[in-house]
Specification:
Number of helices: 8
Largest sheet: 4 strands, mixed
Radius of gyration: 17 Å
Strand order of the largest sheet: 2-1-3-4
CATH class of the largest domain: Mainly Alpha
Bound molecules: glutathione
CATH topology of the largest domain: Glutathione S-transferase Yfyf (Class Pi), Chain A, domain 2
Shape: globular
Helix content: 55-70%
Number of strands: 4
Structural class: alpha+beta
Order of helices and strands: EHEHEEHHHHHH
Distance between the termini: 32 Å
CATH architecture of the largest domain: Up-down Bundle
């Protein structure tokens, strides 16, 4: 069994999908979390000056999507066929599209613009993306996004709604099947234990 060391900030951001993969697969890893001053001292030691970074037996891998896919393949959460892998990529891409919008809102400094961005998220973007995800889920039978068991696809969807639900807790009320999927996946024993003791952060 390789030794895994995972470096990211002390929040969810682009790192949580990777932590979800480790916890869902019940694999040990060192979850290293930085504050900004400490990050500044180790930035140069990372491959591209950014985190997340995974170190596997001393070898470093950057880019959140690459790390999540690599670990999912290692732990049997990457889909059973090339088509299933492609579907997982599709949902990760769709989640990434929503993440970009959430990040825009999160980092906006102008209070007026921030309000507008939030209104657009709540009135337009969240319903649109919830609709996309719920339809896709239903098409696959309602339990999982890809195939007949848990994959990185399910974890990507759980992850992308963590931050939106933090500031807009009712956003899934009109999407009960998506909400039920979320609750079911987060109730899986390894994930539930992790999420219960996870520090609450804005992002
Ligand atoms: N495409 C990269 C983006 C990584 C990235 O933007 N990391 C940010 C945190 S989310 C970072 O390292 N910020 C600190 C810095 O650039 O000094 C990925 O998905 O891993």
């Amino acid at each position: 069994m390789p030794t895994y060391k995972f470096q990211y900030f002390d929040g969810r951001g682009r790192g949580e999908i990777i932590r979800y993969v480790f916890h869902a697969a019940d694999k040990d890893f060192e979850d290293i979390r930085y504050d900004f001053p400490t990050w500044a001292t180790i930035k140069e030691s990372t491959p591209f000056g950014q985190i997340p970074v995974l170190t596997v037996d001393g070898k470093k891998l950057a880019q959140s999507g690459s790390i999540a896919r690599y670990l999912a393949r290692e732990f049997g959460l990457a889909g059973k066929t090339s088509w299933e892998q492609a579907l997982i990529d599709q949902y990760m891409g769709l989640a990434g599209d929503l993440f970009k919008e959430v990040i825009k809102f999160y980092f906006e400094k102008d209070e007026g613009k921030k309000k507008e961005l939030l209104k657009n998220l709540e009135d337009v973007l969240y319903p649109k993306f919830c609709g996309f995800f719920q339809n896709a889920l239903e098409k696959n039978g309602g339990n999982y996004f890809v195939g007949s068991g848990l994959t990185l696809g399910d974890l990507a969807v759980i992850d992308i709604f963590d931050t939106p639900l933090h500031h807009s807790p009712k956003l899934m009320d009109a999407f009960p099947k998506l909400q039920a999927h979320r609750q079911r996946i987060l109730a899986l024993p390894n994930l539930a234990t992790y999420v219960q003791k996870r520090k609450v952060t804005d992002i």
